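can u do me a favor
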């Protein structure tokens, strides 16, 4: 009896070792642990059920999109890349320029009935650079408006007829602000990475960051003037405090701000922080003009950086599952982001949106989606920092009364960096 038990145990051990040896390990790294750790763990658990031959291992998460990109750029030089990396949607360009991610076109072409799994052309377009698909979108966000209905009621506003324009937002913000010194009328998360909420009001008016051949600043026209003046009005008319993004979120969740404009990605975290203290409603981003008004898609995409073919093949299975119906649905349920996968939205999440209308606000804006713009060349990241510094001069109050002058200075500084890039490329 003992001999049979020892023999069976030995066979089990050998089988386990053989299984472990047959597994292909895929190392994965993602940003923003406070938003995505639970999400990726749940998807990995589901993935393991259908792909026992692949072992997904997580590296310590990147703290931000900026850190994610800088780390991958360094690791490409030292050959220490993960096999799969999640990067900000506007960072694809810089990584492709350095030949870091693998093109996915061959994998996509080899899939049978891929569209029936919810994959579609718009998903490929988001991750396309230089005519090839290098990334698939995982979590997509759009800017929306968060409203504290309790403060709106208290200020005499109509909760059933919330504003759709910046003028209306500011009028309501003034009423809320007048409730007392501890109450803010409005906050605007202008410091979100990559100048996202600078691009939003420019694109919403039909504008662009640069001209068609990307040699000249184009945000200095009427669209940019409207955007910069509006941000200044938030300070001068709306009394917007000078807070960073986490502080804005915390202040709103504490019930001390009437209107907060930020990414839909904040929705779950903000809702959890509110904890039922007041009634929250989300509404669409204001003043998106027809027919050319658009909103930049935020969020992150997934790229394969593995060099070995076996690793790449296994990584493709990971990418496919994470962006497929099941992975996308888990992502939507655990964050405020939208899944770009059609089957996830139409099938898995149908009841979810009915029960969570605040999550549907961003989905209702999907027709307005455009690319989150990335400036070209080696100065691309520096340009975003320059823009952020000029916006800060408005939000801090230092130059809030001269938005046109700030825009002119910002245009000059960006054009100088752009000209260096264009000149170096010639």
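np, heres the sequence
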């Amino acid at each position: 009896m003992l001999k049979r038990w020892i023999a069976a145990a030995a066979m089990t051990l050998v089988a386990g070792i053989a299984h472990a040896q047959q597994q292909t390990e895929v190392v994965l790294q993602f940003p923003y642990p406070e938003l995505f750790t639970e999400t990726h763990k749940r998807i990995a658990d589901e993935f393991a059920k259908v792909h026992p031959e692949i072992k997904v291992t997580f590296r310590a998460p990147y703290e931000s999109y900026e850190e994610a990109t800088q780390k991958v750029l360094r690791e490409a030089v030292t050959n220490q890349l993960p096999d799969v990396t999640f990067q900000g949607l506007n960072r694809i360009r810089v990584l492709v320029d350095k030949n870091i991610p693998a093109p996915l076109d061959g994998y996509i072409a080899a899939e049978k009935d891929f569209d029936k799994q919810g994959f579609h052309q718009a998903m490929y377009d988001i991750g396309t650079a230089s005519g090839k698909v290098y990334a698939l979108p995982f979590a997509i966000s759009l800017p929306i408006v968060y409203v504290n209905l309790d403060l709106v009621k208290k200020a005499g506003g109509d909760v059933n007829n919330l504003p759709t324009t910046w003028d209306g937002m500011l009028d309501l913000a003034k009423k809320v602000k007048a409730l007392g010194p501890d109450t803010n009328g409005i906050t605007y998360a202008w410091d979100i990475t990559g100048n996202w909420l600078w691009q939003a009001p420019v694109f919403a008016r039909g504008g662009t960051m640069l001209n068609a051949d990307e040699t000249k600043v184009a945000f200095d026209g009427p669209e940019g003037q409207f955007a910069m003046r509006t941000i200044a009005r938030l300070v001068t008319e709306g009394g917007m405090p000078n807070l960073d993004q986490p502080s804005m979120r915390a202040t709103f969740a504490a019930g001390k701000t009437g209107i907060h404009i930020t990414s839909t990605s904040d929705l779950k975290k903000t809702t959890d922080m509110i904890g039922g203290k007041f009634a929250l409603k989300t509404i669409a981003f204001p003043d998106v003009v027809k027919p050319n008004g658009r909103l930049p898609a935020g969020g992150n995409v997934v790229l394969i950086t593995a060099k070995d073919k076996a690793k790449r093949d296994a990584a493709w299975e990971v990418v496919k599952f994470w962006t497929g119906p099941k992975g996308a649905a888990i992502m939507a349920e655990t964050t405020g982001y939208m899944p770009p996968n059609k089957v996830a939205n139409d099938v898995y999440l149908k009841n979810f949106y009915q029960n969570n209308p605040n999550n549907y606000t961003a989905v209702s804006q999907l027709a307005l989606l455009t690319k989150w713009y990335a400036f070209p060349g080696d100065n691309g990241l520096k340009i975003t920092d320059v823009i952020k510094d000029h916006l800060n001069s408005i939000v801090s109050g230092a130059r809030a009364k001269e938005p046109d002058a700030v825009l002119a200075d910002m245009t000059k500084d960006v054009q100088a960096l752009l000209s260096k890039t264009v000149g170096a490329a010639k």
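The chain has 19 helices and 13 strands. hope that helps!!
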